[in-house]
């Protein structure tokens, strides 16, 4: 049974979402909901190959264990500010430094701007002398898709693969063909099929929705590092994660798929007040430590 905090969060989210119309309003709401990081978490601004970024480190973070993090927000919103608390929790759980990227957003910067910035961030880490075997890549929602896009583009460019990748409620099919778009539409408090379709349209700006770097579900996952996929059972994107796991396993990739009962889209990022979110964070940290001892 889910915690009481989950229903409280759902009630607040539904009330706020009902008042939002434009992208500008969505961005403002997202920033308003941002939680401050825990007091002992340190942050340091940096420019990663032209992309604004930030090093986040909790006490005990190993200098040579790094998580490259891509925030969610449907490609049109989200920032370092909205995810700073979450990245600090990842740093603590994984005992790793986290490099958060402030990639360019649509519709001002449509596909492939976010992919280009994300790959630039991974190249930045390699250029800093960090070994790929000591790097994990992670992201939620659109950031989960960008995590996979880095693997696809990096592999095709001959870059060494990181040690692990973590996808949280990844938004990886911009045609939105998963059956859960229908079966979960009445229980998802964040997305409706129409609303999520508008985000995809803003990002694609006319590009083919089956382009693998935009919709990684349609990419060949051969050669990917071990994947952790976490998703809530009450979100319309549930089947994106299930289909990703199936395709990756068929390609010989080590996959750990976790479907969390009653949880909503990117519930992990609510770890500051949602017990299940913090439990998921601890699981993410354990997975990363298993891959990067």
Task: Explain what this protein looks like in three dimensions.
This protein is an alpha/beta fold and 293 residues long. The chain has one domain: Rossmann fold (3-Layer(aba) Sandwich). It has 9 helices and 8 strands. β3, α3 and β4 form a beta-alpha-beta unit. The protein is globular. The model has no long low-confidence stretch (mean pLDDT 96).
Counting copies of identical and different chains, the oligomeric state is single chain
The CATH homology group name: Alpha/Beta hydrolase fold, catalytic domain
Mean pLDDT: 96
Discrete helix count: 9
* CATH domain topology: Rossmann fold
Q: Helices and strands in order, then pairings?
A:
Elements: H1 4-17, H2 23-32, E1 42-48, E2 51-57, E3 62-70, H3 80-94, E4 96-101, H4 113-127, E5 135-140, H5 142-156, E6 164-168, H6 180-183, H7 193-204, E7 227-232, H8 238-250, E8 255-260, H9 275-291
Parallel strand pairs: 3-4, 3-5, 5-6, 6-7, 7-8
Antiparallel strand pairs: 1-2, 2-4
Helix pairs in contact: 3-9, 4-5
